[in-house]
């Protein structure tokens, strides 16, 4: 039987720094281990902008989009845990089950995550590189079956789809990597989408002092609405001294750097209590260097951690967080600043760059 190829509309960037334009692309039926999904929503994430600007690679043309909910349309013949009609959140951590991390019982660190084998293409046959192996600024996309995490269908797809990337990264930085405990103090430096998600995660974990730090007072106020108990505008106040003043002079138990710059990392390092934890979830650029006195690293104790995708395991974390959302404990709706169409992605990148939104969400 001849394989069906689906012609769908999608957002593509053809060259470094080029515009994100709507194109007709070709999506094949799923093969072994794959799933074809009808995309419902897709958040506009900084990672997509990095692809557009050449900050991740030069494997153009890129099919953008990755922070999504979808409905399974078809599955490969060997896929047994998904069926057409399943509501899913897409993820970029389809674990292999066989690498050294998986064998140690730590699949959240899987070193051999995988994507669909077949290629989606432009109409002329040019292969597309899907963002984070997903490519979901599209009416349909092809993914590995393991990139689909089943969820209930009685929730707003625009809200829960944000767990697919940035919001999960922030929440996970607090509850997974930072292991925030009830009654602890937490400071978050950088209050964009990921930082605000870390604040929401700290509140969910039971932190009682949650300090939001940002240069922009408007972002600090937004963070307070999402769970911060205190705010520090760092263009007006030294953040290290301010965090210490709010924690009885000691520093916070956990400090999360959601910016990813040497200066913010140093602030996080010195703003934590002795034996406290620093979590880096903001993504630095390749040229950035960090200098710290080694004696201070030794003398302050504690731990310095990096958070990859919030150290999440989608099959474990997505359903649990959707349940917390349904119980009213996790305000995912508040992260949806606007709902837009595929043709509005380019403008959404500009709004994101200016810091005007937590998330623009495409409704396909």
UniProtKB/TrEMBL annotation:
Residues 20-362 form the Enoyl reductase (ER) domain. It comes from the Bacteria. GO terms for molecular function: S-(hydroxymethyl)glutathione dehydrogenase [NAD(P)+] activity; zinc ion binding. Gene3D superfamilies: Medium-chain alcohol dehydrogenases, catalytic domain (3.90.180.10), NAD(P)-binding Rossmann-like Domain (3.40.50.720). The keyword Disulfide bond does not apply. One of its GO terms (cellular component) is cytosol. One of its GO terms (biological process) is formaldehyde catabolic process. Keywords: Metal-binding, NAD, Zinc. InterPro entries: ADH-like_C (IPR013149), ADH-like_N (IPR013154), ER (IPR020843), GroES-like_sf (IPR011032), MycoS_dep_FDH (IPR017816), NAD(P)-bd_dom_sf (IPR036291). Belongs to the zinc-containing alcohol dehydrogenase family. NCBIfam families: mycoS_dep_FDH (TIGR03451). This is Alcohol dehydrogenase. It comes from Sinomonas humi.
């Amino acid at each position: 039987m001849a394989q069906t190829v689906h012609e769908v509309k999608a957002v593509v960037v053809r060259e470094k720094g080029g515009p994100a334009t709507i194109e007709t692309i070709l999506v094949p039926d799923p093969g072994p281990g794959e799933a074809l999904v009808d995309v419902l929503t897709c958040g506009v994430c900084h990672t997509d902008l990095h692809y557009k600007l050449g900050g991740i690679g030069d494997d153009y043309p890129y099919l953008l989009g990755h922070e999504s909910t979808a409905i399974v349309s078809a599955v490969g013949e060997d896929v047994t845990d998904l069926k057409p009609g399943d509501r899913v959140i897409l993820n970029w951590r389809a674990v292999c089950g066989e690498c050294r991390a998986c064998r140690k019982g730590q699949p959240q660190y899987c070193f051999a995550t995988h994507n669909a084998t077949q290629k989606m293409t432009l109409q002329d046959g040019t292969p597309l590189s899907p963002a984070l192996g997903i490519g979901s600024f599209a009416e349909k996309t092809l993914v590995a079956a393991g990139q689909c995490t089943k969820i209930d269908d009685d929730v707003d797809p625009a809200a829960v789809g944000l767990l697919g990337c940035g919001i999960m990264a922030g929440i996970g930085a607090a509850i997974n990597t930072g292991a925030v405990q009830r009654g602890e103090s937490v400071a978050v430096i950088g209050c964009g989408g990921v930082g605000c998600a870390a604040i929401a995660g700290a509140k969910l974990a039971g932190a009682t002092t949650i300090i939001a730090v940002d240069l922009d007072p408007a972002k600090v106020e937004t963070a307070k609405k999402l769970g911060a108990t205190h705010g520090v505008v760092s263009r007006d106040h030294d953040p290290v001294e301010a965090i210490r003043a709010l924690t009885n002079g000691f520093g916070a138990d956990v400090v999360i750097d959601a910016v990813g710059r040497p200066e913010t990392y140093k602030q996080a390092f010195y703003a934590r209590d002795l034996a406290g934890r620093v979590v880096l979830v903001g993504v630095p650029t390749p040229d950035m260097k960090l200098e710290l006195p080694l004696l201070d690293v030794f003398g302050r104790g504690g731990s310095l951690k990096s958070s990859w995708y919030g150290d999440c395991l989608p099959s474990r974390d997505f359903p649990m967080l959707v349940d917390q959302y349904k119980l009213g404990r996790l305000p995912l709706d508040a992260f949806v600043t606007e709902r837009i169409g595929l043709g509005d992605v380019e403008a959404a990148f500009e709004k994101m760059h200016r810091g005007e939104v937590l998330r623009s969400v495409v409704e396909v």
